[in-house]
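Shapes recur. Our protein:

. . .
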Amino acid sequence: MKISDVRTFVVGNPPPHFGGRYFIFLKLVTDNGIEGVGEVYAATFGPRVVARMIEDVCARHVIGADPFRIEALWRNVYGSGYTLRPDLSLVGVLSGIEMACWDIVGKALEKPVYALLGGQVHQRLRTYTYIYPDTGAGDDDGIYADPDRSAERALEYVGQGFTAVKFDPAGAYSAFDPRQPSLEALDRSERFAKAIRAAVGDRADLLFGTHGQFTPSGAVRLARRLEPYDPLWFEEPVPPEMPEEMARVARQTSIPIATGERLTTKYEFARVLECGAASILQMALGRVGGLLEAKKIAGMAEAHYAQIAPHLYCGPVEGAANIQISACSPNFLILESIQDWGGFHSDILKNPIRWEDGYVIPPTEPGLGVELDEEVAAAHPYEGDALHLEMARRPL
């Protein structure tokens, strides 16, 4: 069996854009007609540029290759152009390709991917969601500024079955970070944590999200405000370049540190583990290097008594890969959902992800267990030029 063709899809995510402005999917086809899908989470270039990157990498390394030889393919792409280092955009492209190869392999063997990576450990996967506005029309109904409204929304999610909710009231992030949190940001963050804890009691964990805005000393100041409300984690409190500095935060707070959405490959995660920067690793499968790379990272984490909580601010194909790695990893903690996987995350798939009472049920279908609805994808092209996420371009 050889890979004979590749096709890319740049899909606009309709309002309210939960999960990002657009999704980048790819499909690999073999010479005997088996198709595999993948998703690339590369946010540093425009999506149509990334689609051309996918086509270029496939022309150089993938077309004519055996999809079963994933390790060899991975090393050849990883070293492309004399790199052999964690290049975020290249490894994002590689992640989607590798994901599609596993989808092909699973279909050829008539097994889910998790069955080929050690076998199923978890029969169902605990999930969490961000606290999103409930208007569905871009109006955030005050939810990101009003702790009482967020607490009400958190209680609604708990009523749906969620046992954890994530929120980020600490303020915007900038290309000029890290910085000290303002007294206003400290006060607002504490009020959010207090209100949401009072609303949900011990029925749900609180996941406090940040985006690397703060210096280590500033993050410690914020953590001390949050500790009375016992969050399950404090996410990415400092920027990702220097895990040694994140480790300073970890040593000075009782809140577990979580990180990983901006990291790629086992090499970057190894630094996190070696210096004790985090005990919860949030690899994003469309960026980290794919399924096998994530499995290696999960194994390293297991040896450090650390857990994995795959990150999702992306589309449902990356979400499907997250599910596969979670199902076969003993140290799985919790899975990020975009609410209950409804809306466009359901519409773009022929067979939506199964979510029940706060848990995802891993699929039994072969491969990744999902199929892209190409008609829906074609009907929603991304027409903009903005990146998936943008940072403020001035100091805050």
Summary: The CA atoms of residues 127 and 264 lie 23 Å apart. The first strand starts at residue 3 and ends at 12. DSSP finds 13 helices and 13 strands in the chain. The chain has a mean pLDDT of 96.
